[in-house]
Write a structure and sequence with these properties.
mainly alpha; Proton glutamate symport protein; 0% strand; disordered C terminus; binds aspartic acid
Length: 425
């Protein structure tokens, strides 16, 4: 599968490059190729809410015992926070060592600030509404007041997760006879959704072809990459280190070789790269870790939807690098205290970022505000955000997959068990 997807991606890039040579090329791509990319992403997004619902209800009710649920929940969230803090720290270390902001000339800075002012202020105003809310608002928003309202918007994943867990808990608590038909329904529904993912994935090479051809047509000018090269490089080096970190911890805890982990998760990584959305990639991540990394469905159906929503290591690393880069470009010296503050705000901001393209940049505004860095600096990095978004989404998805294999191995005594009665105390 990953070869087919890679082939589709390569063909997309070549087609985009070839057609951009003609004056009529870009509109041809936008009118006749881009829609197929949109159809593919829509189909993946369409699956996300039913998938979370069916798999979580099945996963939680299979646990048979609430102690197992709370144990797995606690350890999963704890591991997520640990990997996120690691990511932010790596980002901070690199950006302080490489100092990409110092190499940017005054002229380029002014150029960028004026070219992307409008886009930057749009993001700043989006983030404004987030900043005004009370400290516990995030918690309040996890509990929806209406299920259909929650399910109607892919940005409300946490609310759908909350509802699904509640249904699963209800199924555990009622007598077996009454629970059985409901449980059987969701077990069957889950199978149907998984089959739908297989069907959608047959079209993945065409989908990624269309997505990448469009990206090439819409990509920023090459001189922008030259100006922001050191910044982009810092983010990418950090992201590569994170992939190395996952491979290492997966090997440490599960003895799975780096090659088998990477090959197992590769199609999900390629899709994350093409779509820039962890939510859209979720169905495939789920299929890969259960089918190819030996993670039981019970663990995957809990860890992955929660991870796609709150565990964004690539995003948090990027936010740390971007914040310090902007400060450096403005000639600001950030104290150790401020940088430690960034660890906290970038961790929280990545948890709060939606699993959709560009979300990490909106939440970056909050990191900047907390650290006293000018928010207008967003204009500096706007031009190269999309390619970096593609790369950080790969890391976000890989992090979820890595944690799910570790949770399956460490939390569950028998990783291949069909249910989790044997969780060690
Ligand atoms: N696109 C990222 C994701 O979906 C979020 C972000 O960093 O913008 O995981």
């Amino acid at each position: 599968m990953h070869w087919k997807i890679l082939f589709g991606m390569a063909l997309g890039v070549l087609t985009g490059l070839a057609l951009s040579q003609f004056s009529w090329g870009p509109s041809l791509v936008r009118d006749w190729i881009k829609p197929f990319g949109n159809i593919f992403i829509n189909a993946l997004k369409l699956i996300a809410v039913p998938l979370i619902l069916a798999s979580l209800i099945k996963g939680v009710s299979d646990l048979k015992d609430l102690t197992n649920l709370s144990k797995m929940g606690f350890r999963t969230v704890f591991t997520f926070i640990l990997t996120t803090v690691t990511a932010v720290s790596i980002g901070l270390l690199l950006v302080n060592l490489i100092k990409p902001g110092s190499s940017i000339s005054e002229e380029t800075r002014m150029d960028l600030l004026s070219s992307y002012q409008t886009e930057a202020s749009l993001n700043i105003s989006k983030a404004e509404t987030q900043k005004e809310v009370s400290p516990l608002q995030g918690l309040v928003e996890i509990v929806p007041e209406n299920f259909l309202g929650a399910a109607a918007d892919n940005r409300n994943m946490l609310q759908v997760i909350f509802f699904a867990i509640m249904v699963g808990v209800g199924l555990i608590l009622i007598p077996g006879g009454a629970a059985k038909p409901v449980k059987d329904f969701f077990d069957g529904f889950n199978e149907v959704i998984l089959k739908m993912i297989d069907v959608i994935m047959i079209t993945a090479p065409i989908g990624v072809f269309a997505l990448l051809a469009t990206l090439v047509i819409d990509s920023p000018k090459i001189d922008l990459f030259a100006a922001l090269g050191m910044y982009g490089l810092t983010v990418i080096v950090g992201l590569i280190i994170m992939i190395g970190f996952y491979v290492f911890i997966v090997f440490l805890f599960t003895k799975r070789s780096p090659k088998s982990f990477i090959l197992g998760i590769a199609p999900a990584q390629l899709l994350a790269f093409s779509t820039s959305s962890s939510a859209a990639t979720l169905p495939v991540t789920m299929e890969r870790v259960t089918g190819h990394l030996g993670v039981s469905k019970e663990v995957a159906s809990f860890v992955l939807p929660v991870g796609a929503t709150i565990n964004m290591d690539g995003t948090s690393l990027y936010q740390a690098v971007a914040a310090v880069f902007i400060a450096q470009a403005f000639g600001m010296d950030l104290s150790l205290g401020t940088q430690l503050g960034i660890i906290l705000t970038a961790t929280l901001a990545s948890i709060g970022s939606a699993a959709v393209p560009g979300a990490g940049m909106v939440m970056l505004v909050i990191v900047l505000a907390q650290a006293g860095i000018p928010e207008a600096g967003l204009a500096l990095i706007f031009g190269v955000d999309r390619p970096l978004d593609m790369c950080r989404t790969v890391v976000n998805v890989s992090g979820d997959a890595a944690v799910s294999t570790i949770v399956a191995k460490v939390v569950v005594e028998k990783p291949a068990a069909t249910h989790l009665r044997n969780i060690p105390v």
